[in-house]
Amino acid sequence: MNRNTSSRNGDTPSVLPTDDARHAVASEDVGSLMARSAAQMWRQGRREEALEKMRETVELTRLMVLNQPSLFTYQLALFLETFGRFLFDSGRLEDGLKSTEESVLIYQALSKNQPAQFNPDLACGYAQLFKHRAHMGLHTEALQAGQGAVRIYRLIASQNPTLPTNELAISLLNLSGYLHQSGRYADGLSIAKEAAAVCQTSVAEHPEFNPHLAAAFTYISANSLGLRQHWEATTWANEAVQTYRNLAIDQPETFSTEFAQSLVYLFDSFIVRNSPGEGMQNIQVALSVYRQAVVNNPSATTSGLAQCLEVLSCSMSDRGCHDYALQLSQEAVKQRRQVKIKNETTHDADLAKSLHNMSVFLSNLSRHKEALSVMREVVKLRRKLAGQDSVTYNGDLANSLYHLFLALFNFQGHTNRTMQTITEATGLYRKLATQDVNYNGRLASCLFELSTSLASKSEHKKSLKAAREAVELYQKLAAMRPIFFTSSLILSMMNLITRLNDSRLYQEALAVEEEVEAILAQQMTLVSESTSLADLNCRNK
After folding, report:
1. What domains are there in the chain, each with its CATH number?
2. The whole model's pTM is what?
3. CA–CA dist 351, 141 (Å, integer)
């Protein structure tokens, strides 16, 4: 979930006041004139000229600070902040971050002596710093900046209780969204509820808070979903839908796509409750709204339409409508490619996700050669992403490597390339599982496949070792979640029996067979008891 509450452009959330909202400089000095000229060049699309002019402005102001620090230190901070934004938006991320960090350091020094005057600038600087660090994958540092912005906006709001708290609401939403992306759902939920409370306090007198209130409902729902509070997630998603629906009625050009996105989130909440049928009408409405938005504005980004197509395609696949699922997925990939052309590398992750789904759907239709070709493209994209930010993308890369193994096996059977792929996937999942036990299920699956691949090459000792490890993991997983993992445990034990026989360990193989028979008998007993209970309930009605 990635939503920018201030600009609605789908980038990492941030709140940056306009230049007009900042403190005015009393004197019309040369630096201010140069900065204004640079801003005009930027708006005209003359980016390189604007960057050079802004660079000259910063260097000139540094010299002026040496002679008159009391007059020009604040200006230097403003110009550094603007220069950092220009650099960042031009793709010069490191230089942009350095400039923004320097501006924040100056604001911090100024606010120590005059907090009432400079705290708004410091909060705004933190917001820009948060955006830059988040985009660069500096997660800990980004979180610190986001929390800094919230802390100061809270202080400003407490000191000015009669004023609207727009900046506080947006900074809370930004922080909640980022916490959600980081998997910190409990913290994200708490912050989202605070954002909702702030908005509800102001919305009666300030209707412009309604979009922020709708976003707060969305974040409450998303974080509730992360905490597996499924009914709460659906309730809050419904609140978001109703709020966005009203906004879309009044301002369709501005809020139609927001309304459609809220319907997608509502459908997601039905999916996790295993009730996709209840949400099917919502996703169909969302798809219709997105298609109309693209017709009305062909130059607009089509990310929302692509996401809606993906959600619907997955639902259709789960229902066994594989041809229709593939058709929707192919359209989603087409939309993602169009977005990527406009934004180059910034949408690689979204394109990789759409391609991954498309490959799986092709495989479901036994179109294995096409599925393999698409999955190879996915792995290439995700290798690139993982090289830039391993913490965020290694899990996706491991998943795609596993599916690349399946695609290779379906098309070519066991080959050296197939073996290399499953070995790499297993190694990556092993590393991930040491950091997060939630990866143990994926690791067990990889070990199972690795065992069979090694056996096909007559590497029985290694095959047996992998089979044993897979069984050990599935035993732990089945103990915690028997409904989800017992069948996988039985399959892994049957594979272990085969591997033991391959190694002529017949007595041990016989012992494992007896364990499997005991588990199967236990499962049959549970099914019988469940059936008897259901019959009794029917007779008592």
Report:
1. 1-163 (1.25.40.10), 417-541 (1.25.40.10)
2. 0.67
3. 27
